[in-house]
Amino acid sequence: MQEARIMLGLLESVERDGAQTQRRLASELGVALGLVNAYLKRCVKKGLMKVAQAPARRYAYYLTPQGFAEKARLTVDYFSHSFAFFRRARSEYSELFALAVSRGFSRLVLAGASDLAEIATICALESGVGIVAVVDKSCTKSKSVGVPVFGSFDDVTVGFDAVVVTALQDASEVWCEVRARYGSERIFVPPLLGLADQARPSEHAG
């Protein structure tokens, strides 16, 4: 879903202004500059975009008919899946936050600045827990839904009780890193991420 969202966002941005810099595209999409470059090359190779020389040694991208068709397909696909995804994610994070509260955890950090982080932040407001930070090494934004974003756990200076995994693309890697730092008892992972060896909510309860 994350990859489709980035691709859709890129196609929409290029349609609006194909002459904007890759740095601006990266900022708009909230991803690393190198990732934007890779996606642009992939789009050109697949025939979704064409590239032309622009003033000041820059390049301008524009969508091909195939690119417009792909954007339409991704739009329909994204909205058809997003509502079901939102409902499931909201339900699972609400359960995790209720479990966190039952264990005395009220100040949480989200690991991953994806769509899940936004959903989790909404659930947190309803569950009586506070999200004090989001940690994501590849995120270029300074805030996510009003919450400060840091590139590393070492940069988080406020105290917190536990970590909730909200990464999508590299969830397994993030979970392993957090577990090594803080131990399994301080990590909460929703089942939708599909981590085979994750601790289930019932196993957290003690």
Number of strands: 8
Largest sheet: number of strands, sense, barrel closure: 6 strands, mixed
Helix-strand string: HHHEEHEHEEEEHEH
Give the spatial strand order of the biggest sheet. Answer: 5-6-4-3-7-8
The tally of helices reads 7
**Rg calc:** 19 Å
Total number of distinct structural domains:
2
Inertia-based shape: elongated
CATH superfamily of the largest domain: NAD(P)-binding Rossmann-like Domain
Residue fraction in strands: 15-25%
CATH class of the largest domain: Alpha Beta
What class do helices, strands and sheet pairing give? alpha/beta
CATH architectural label of the largest domain: 3-Layer(aba) Sandwich
CATH topology of the largest domain: Rossmann fold
Terminal Cα span: 34 Å
In helices, the fraction of residues equals 40-55%
Characterization of this structure:
The chain has 206 residues and is of the alpha/beta class. The protein has two domains: 2-63, Winged helix-like DNA-binding domain superfamily/Winged helix DNA-binding domain (Arc Repressor Mutant, subunit A), CATH 1.10.10.10; 85-204, NAD(P)-binding Rossmann-like Domain (Rossmann fold). The chain is built from seven helices and eight strands. The chain has helices at residues 2-16, 22-29, 33-45, 65-102, 115-127, 171-182, 201-204, and strands at 49-54, 58-63, 107-111, 130-135, 143-144, 147-150, 162-165, 187-188. The strands form two sheets. The protein has a six-stranded mixed sheet with strand order 5-6-4-3-7-8, sandwiched between helices. It has a two-stranded antiparallel sheet with strand order 1-2. Helix 1 (2-16) crosses helix 4 (65-102), helix 2 crosses helix 3 (33-45) and helix 4 runs parallel beside helix 5. The longest helix has 38 residues, at 65-102. Mean pLDDT is 87; it is low at 199-206.
